[in-house]
Structures are given as C-alpha cells and as structure tokens.
Please model this.
Amino acid sequence: MLYISTSGKDKTDLRGAVKCCYAPDGGIYLPERLPVIPRAYFNNIAEMSLTEIAYVVANMLLGDEIDAGTIKSVVDRAFDFDIPLRQLPSGVHVLELFNGPTHAFKDISARFMSALLQTHARISGVHPVVLTATTGNTGEAIADAFAGIEGVDTVVLYPQGAMSRSELSRFAAMGAGVHVVEVAGTIDQCKTMVRQVVTEHNATGKIRLLTANTHNVVRLLPQIVYFFHACARLAAAGHRPDGFSVAIPCGNLSNLTSAVMARRMGLPMGRIVAGCSANNGFARVLDGTLAPGDVSHISARTLARAMDSGYPTNLPRLLALYKGDLQAMRRDISAASVSDEQIRDTIRHADMAESYLLDPHTAVAYAALRSIPDSGTHEVVLATAHPAKSAATVSQILGREIEPLPMPACCNGAHAPRTAKTAPTAAALNRYIQTHIKP
Model:
C-alpha cells in the first residue's frame, strides 16, 4: 500500500511514511486507499478476540509490505491487555481503552509503533531518536513504549507548567534513554519544534530523527482496531451493532480520523460524535465559523489537558478523506463543544446516575453524546484515560478522594524529576539533541 500526502503530491511506502512522517510537500501521510473488509467477516465477529480482530485489520492494511509473522508479533505486543466494553445503567456503553501500562489509550498506538520499528522499519547503523510533544498522556505512553530498547532515545517535550512533579517523576523509572524537556511555550510551539527539526534533519548522519506524535501515520492505524472491537463486543452482548454510534474526545482528532477510516473499511458504524473542549477548532470548522486552513487558533488550558491543542493535527487528514467536502463530513460527524463547567457537571452526573467514574476527557465525549439527539441505537463512548490519571481534578469535583495511580517503585521522594528546560525554537531543540544524545 502506498501512502499519499494530504497535500496530494508526494507518495511513499510504509517505511518511508513512518520514518519521514512529514511529506516533502508539507502534508502528512494517509493511506492512498483503504481496503474493505468483506461483509461476511462480521458474521462471526462476536466470537473473535481482540488480538484476532487486530490481526485481521492490521493484515488488511499492512499485509502487502509486512509478513504475517511480523504482523502477529506487533499485534500481540500492542494489544496485550483487555479493552472491556461496559454497559451503564442508562444503556450507554463505555469502551475502556485505559488498561495499558500508562493507563491511557495512547499505549496501544505507541506500543504498535515501537514494535513495528523494531521489526520492520529499523535502519542498520543509524541511531533512532523519537521525538514527541505532549501535555501529559502521549509523552508517558511513548516513553514507556520505547524505554529499554537498545540504541533508541526518546525526547519528550512539554509546555511550561503542563505536568506536575508526580507526573514527571514517572519518567525517572524509564532509564537514561528517556529525555524530558520543558519548553517555555505552548503545546503548539512544541509540535512546531518537532516538525521543524524532523523535516530539516540530515538523515544521512548517524542519528535519525522521527516523531511519535500523530503526525506519524502509524499512530493512526492500530486505533482503527478498537472500533471493530467495539462492534464485536456489542454483538457478543446480544446487540445488533449495525448503525452503532461512537462518541470520541477530540483534541488532535486521531481517534476521529481512525473512526472514519474504520467506517471506510466496512465497519457498520452510524453517527460519529466529536466531543470538543473549549479548544473547539474542529467544531467551528464543522459548523462553518472557522476556515479549515486557519491555524491561528490559540490553545486554552482546560480540565481535559490532553486535548489542549489549538490547530488539530489530523484535520488535514479528515479534510483529505472527505476531499474537502464539509457537507459530506457533517452527514457522518456531529460535534459539540463542552466547557469546563459542563465537564464538572458530567462527572458528577455519571457518578450519581451511572455509578461510574469518568476522567475529564471521557466526560467531554459523554457530554457531547448527551447533547446530540438521536445519535444511534447503541451508543459507545471512548474512555481514553483512567480517572485516576486526573485524580486531583476528579476528587475536587466530587468532593471525595479518588485513589491515585500507584507510582513506580523507584519513584519515591528521593527521585527528583529528570528534566531540562529550553526555549521554544527548533535551534534550541537541535542544540539539546546534539549535546545530550550520542550515537
């Protein structure tokens, strides 16, 4: 399968798309075509396990470039934990994507990318340096996925003040190959720094720079799997899943893009609900109040911190999938903006009425679903992070203590966070890499 730039000019294979990430014409890569899974596949999907579903989907997408044994080993590593579908008293289903090692959905795509690079995309004699920009969840998932892999360094950039001391302390358990850098700027500046150093880097040297943010198409492909998994679990519970709706917390739109791709591959999905926080650039594009190319939208800090992004990274991919036709996009997708106060109200409502704890990001999707009438016969909310990831916030909202996630054994009070500080420029990031990473 070839991968084509969202700008419509450059094409490459999987290896090139993973390593280069950013196309020479300024776009980001998307599969040139999406294979359609035969309808007969769904006759027995209720009996299929998560890894069986993942293997079928991954083989359809990657089988012309990667052998079956390699695909199986990658799938087995990425999907080695349970993803349950829980039905709440209201009838809403919650797909819990947070059972991986860092308790966020990004564990799946991070581990998939890590395993793929080890088995398929590695370049002999070159030292890979994986760069990622984060406000929290992405960085920890990427660092955990790549930590301990010989000959690989990971650089995690985060905007000033975005992570607490306890969050930073988790990186202390990950070894010398993980570098954590605080940037005196915003998350959008962090993403720009990563893009600039990767695109300007001379790939003929001893170091190869690549990004693990969702600019990299390989982060999207494994996410397609769990939409098929949701369908399977609905069928296993005795429901007819045709036309089921999915509500998604939307920041950089990676899960939204993957949902559209799953639908194009034959998944009988109904309406897709995009839950946006106060960082509602996508909702404004969809309702016509913001031009799709307007990148001037500044990110605001919200309770759903992992969604605090100005211009959504994957919006160009969505526009490419719909060939720029916003009317066609509106037929498939509804979007709602959710304020911090609505997040608080939703967490309280779910706790009282559903006896279920929501984290702030999942609360955005749940609130968006409740605001849109007739979204579908069976409704699935993506739970993208464990509520204990935001224990302080959820505790304050509910007025009672929520038990935080356990710290790694090595992260006691004696371990200060290992962080550096830098200016929000590509030159500063290049200097950090040259100084601290030795091939």
Observations:
- The longest strand covers residues 269-276.
